Every structure is written in C-alpha cells, then in structure tokens.
Amino acid sequence: MRRAVRFLILGVLGLAVLAGAALWWERDARDPRLTFRTVPVTRGDLVAVINATGTVEPEEVVDIGAQVSGFIQSFGTDKNGKPIDYGSVVGVGTVLAKIDPTLYAATVEADKAQLKQAQANLASAIANVPQMKAKLAEAAADWARAQKLGPSEALAPTTFDQYKATYEVAAANVPMAEAAVDQARATVAQDQAMLAKDQKTLDYCIITSPVEGVIVDRRVNIGQTVVSSMSTPSLFLIAKDLKRIQVWASVNEADVGRIHPGQPVTFTVDAFPDRVFHGQVGKIRLNATMTQNVVTYTVEVNTDNSDGTLLPYLTANARFEAGRRHNVLQVPNAALRWTPAPGQIAPELRHRGGGPTGAGSGESGSPPTGHGTLWVEQGPFVRPVEVATGLTDGVQTEVNGPGLAEGQRIVVGEMTAELASAPAATGSGTSPFLPQLRFGRRPQASPGGGPGGPPGTAPGPAGPAGGASPGAR
C-alpha cells in the first residue's frame, strides 16, 4: 500500500513538473518583454563572389644568366643612357653587363694562330700534288723505255728493276699527296670550328638582353665573380611587358569548380586601397599545392596595366564573380536561420507538417537545400512562409515563393522592448551596458547544410549582423 501511495505521489509530482515546464515554456515564448525583430524583403541585384588572395606577377619574365665564368667588369647603359639598374628600360640587344674576357680572348688568339698554320699546311699539300704527278710522269717515261729495251747487254737487270720500282713509288705518291690535301682541309675546318666556338665563348662575356622590357631584379654587382658550371647563375630578371600583368590567385579546391576561363574578376591591392581593378580568368593551373592538408589551385587572372599603376609582386585580394542575379527578391541569411519557439507560432499552425515550425522539418530543424522558411508576424505570433532559395553572397539570399512580396517584413530575431523603444540603441551594439539582442531557438542542424542557398553556398554566421537592415524595428 505504501509503495502504491509513493508511486502515486511521484506521478503527481512529475505531472506537476511537466505542467510547470510547459507553462514556463509558453510564458517564455510569449514573454511580453521580448519583441520580434523584423526587416523588409528587398528587391535588387545579387552577386555571389569567391574570395582569394594572390600576387601580382608580370605576364612574362625572362631570367638572364651567364654561360661563362669570371668577374663582372662593368654594366651597360639603358635606353635613357643610365647604367643598368633596377627599373631600367632595355631593348633587344642592349648590353646589360660585361664579364672579364682576358682568358677567353687569349684562347681566341691561339685558335687564330693554329688556324693560320693549318691553312699553310693545306697550301703546301695542294702544291705537292703537281710535283708528285710530275715525278710520276718522269718515272713512267723511264719505265716505258726500260720495257722496250728489256733486260739485255744494253740495260742491266738491276737498272731495269730500279726503273720499275721508281715508277711504282711515283704512282703511289700521287694519291698520298691528294690524301694529304684532304687531311689539311679537314684540319683547317676543325681549327675554324674551334675558333668559332671560342669566339662565341668570348662573345658570351658581353651579356645582352634578348627581349624588350624592364629590369625587375639585378642580382650581381661590379667585381662580383660568377661561376657557370652545372647550373647557370642568374644575373638579371626582366619583365617583358608590364602593360600586361597577371594576378596569381590561390583558390581552394572547394571553389575551383565554379571558376572558368573568361570569368570576370575584381581585385584590390593594399598600395591603392581606394581603387578596384578589373580582370578576367586566363587559365587554371593543374599543379595543385597542398599546405596543411588544404589543396589550392593557382588561377591566372589577366588584367590591363597600361597606366603602369600595378607593380610586380603586390598582394592582391581577388573576388571571382561566381553568379549574378538581377532584380530578385532577397532576404538576410539570418531570416532563414531563425526558428521560433513552439509557443510563438500561431496556434492554428503549431501542429501542421508534423514539426514545431510548421515547415515539415521535424526534429532536424534545417530545411532541405534550395528551400527555406521565413516567418512573418501575425499579431503576437508568427506564421511560416515557404520559399525556394537561390544564389547567396554570404549575407543576402535570393528567395522566391507564393505569398512573398517586396517590402513584406520578416522576422530575423528577437529583442527586448526597451531596446526596441530606445531611439539611439538600434544598430549600435557597441556598449556592453546596452540590452542585448536575443535570437530565437534553433534546433540541431541537419547534415545537409544550412538553408542559405544551393550546394556549396552556406549562409554567413549567425548573429545580429545578419539582420542589420535599416528597416529593422
């Protein structure tokens, strides 16, 4: 009996607690000290952008090196007659620097002397050919006479054999002389090639510009020794044309799919904070980089720099235009995130759709991607308006749906009555002594993401900034 009474008392207390909690929830939801914070539905243009950071780079850069070793003897002069330095304007063939040519000039002189000797040997070989032919003719005549007489008392056998041997030697000397000519010609050609090679090496002591442009970097000084071995030392960096310049922007892999060649881009640089530069995507490089497990792609943005304002290697803050909508209805993202308490919904709508919001979202509280729920005041309560969401810029989201019109006021949060009636408090939010805004309850978010727009375009962070509209009341 006592146990039954005890269970009865506990049951009554439990019901009392539940009833008290329900009453408290209802009273809290309809707290007269709180009022809805609303903003109007606006109409206008909406632009979605992808932000990225990059570096201003010349469109084409030529790295000038040295092919010979030695110390820098002097610098050349630019188009203005001044010594080559940073920012010098140079043309094709402009002398940039001279390397000490002493050793290479001596080698060239030795090659010239060797070539002259080879040419003299060739002339001697050529002159020797007729001499050998003349000796052959003489030996042939003697041999012919010896053959007529034959070995007899008039011509001793030894003499006969001598004429024969002399003729055969003379006949062999002629092709040998002709071969010596060919050998002498080959030696001359070899010495000429060696002279040309060493002369070219000597010419490399004078560093000239292969293109017309501007000296971006000078990496050597007069008297400095450069050593050309396995790798070519870099002396100058020349920007071919600074009128055409690029921005190399690092774009996250999550956003690179929405970037394509020809896409409009705006960017700013810290050197000129009040000016916005325009360009367009040239190409997306495929050699991605990974930094701390974050994959980024380099996107080349082409821009015109005819006035020479942009300087190489400035840091650029780029904005890629991912989408644009003209003359569409739009609301703050905070309006799509705000969810009322069950007691704040109009009584006739509290159980519609199987969830506390009346939007069919159930316990998840987050509408499916591409759809959302806005809340409109209805006396002391609110009622839902189902909308389809579109493009978002992170602050505003494109919406469309039946029953939604421009100027219609939608709820973005709650605030105290004192704050609503204070003329100077609205929009300040800077003093810790002012009454703080209170936003509605928010169920747990579904894995599908927020209601701010299409896939990959989540609304901005929740907070008072989402509803900072001039029309808030």
Secondary structure elements and pairings:
Elements: H1 2-29, E1 34-40, E2 42-58, E3 61-65, E4 70-75, E5 89-90, E6 95-99, H2 102-149, H3 157-203, E7 206-208, E8 213-218, E9 225-226, E10 234-239, E11 244-252, E12 264-269, E13 272-284, E14 289-291, E15 294-304, E16 315-332, H4 333-337, E17 371-378, E18 381-392, E19 396-400, E20 409-416, H5 417-421
Antiparallel strand pairs: 1-20, 2-11, 2-16, 3-10, 4-6, 4-9, 5-8, 6-7, 8-10, 11-15, 12-13, 12-16, 13-15, 14-15, 16-19, 17-18, 18-19
Task: List the helices and strands in order.
Answer: HEEEEEEHHEEEEEEEEEEHEEEEH
- Mean of the pLDDT scores? 81
Distance between the termini: 61 Å
* Total count of helical runs of at least 4 residues: 5
- β-strand percent reads 25-35%
Kindly name the structural category.
Answer: alpha+beta
Characterize the quaternary organization of these chains: single chain
The coarse silhouette is: elongated
Number of domain units: 4
In helices, the fraction of residues equals 25-40%
The total count of strands amounts to 20
Largest sheet: 6 strands, antiparallel, barrel
Main-sheet strand order equals 2-11-15-13-12-16
Give the low-confidence spans: 353-368, 424-473
Determine Rg (CA atoms, Å). 47 Å
Compact overview of the structure:
This protein has 473 residues and is α+β, with helices and mostly antiparallel strands. The chain has 5 helices and 20 strands. The longest helix is centred in the first third of the chain and has 48 residues, at 102-149.
